[in-house]
Amino acid sequence: MEKLFLSYNQIHQTVKEIAGQINADGYSFDFMIAIGTGGFIPARMLKTFINRPIVTVGMAYYDLDDNKMDAPVITQWLDDPINQIKGRKVLLVDEVDDTRSTIGFCLERLLRHDPAEIAVAVLHNKNKPKSREIPTEVKRYYSGLELEDRWICYPWDADDIWEQDRQAVWSDPPEKGIN
Ligand code: G4P
Ligand code: MG
Predict the structure, then answer these.
(1) Range 153-157 average pLDDT
(2) Considering only CA atoms, which of 86, 84, 102 is closest in space to residue 94?
(3) Rounded distance, CA 108 to CA 76, Å?
(4) Which one of 19, 68, 81, 156 has the fewest CB atoms closer than 10 angstroms to its CB?
(5) Ligand 1 probe mutation, 64, 98, 126, most atoms within 8 A of CB
(6) Whose CA is nearest to atom 3 of ligand 1?
(7) What tens digit of pLDDT does each residue of 51-74 get?
(8) What residues are paired with 35 via a beta bridge?
(9) What pTM did the predictor assign?
């Protein structure tokens, strides 16, 4: 599959654009839930532009040998979901909306706790068939970039960050996400 290498600077810029979308939309959330591990760094970058607390949940779809498992598994969850979520406005942050299994699973679990609103922000949404729909309760969905299906190489996975940067030059810039 074609690979897309991205630098931290490109990610930072994409996060800034997502913040712009959220502000333009007038969504004022109480806190973010970052889906780990891919959502950790994007959530922290977003905090630079929209200063809200971050709580984290851990989900894994690939095991430690990088084999895809049958379903996403929870590796960490909220301490007190009922009190943390009920009546609050939440932004769920992840790096990529791929098959949507992980994000869909998280949304379904979080909606059980009656948030006032839950919205989704992802750096990248791949235009491909999804295993789940975004639940109808979720009215706001922000993506930094809409991409064709390809493997995105994130800088935090790089062994050699300088080589990552060299490969991260966009010869064919993807279209900016519109929301
Ligand atoms: P989704 O709900 O976010 O669409 O994700 P899905 O369940 O399809 O798969 C999620 C896993 O696949 C995540 O890893 C995610 O990082 C990884 N993934 C999907 N597409 C890409 C890609 O193009 N590039 C990279 N680098 N990863 C991709 P995970 O097992 O949940 O763990 P983690 O990497 O977030 O720790
Ligand atoms: Mg992830």
Answers:
(1) 98
(2) 102
(3) 16
(4) 68
(5) 98
(6) 97
(7) 999 999 998 888 889 998 988 899
(8) 57
(9) 0.92
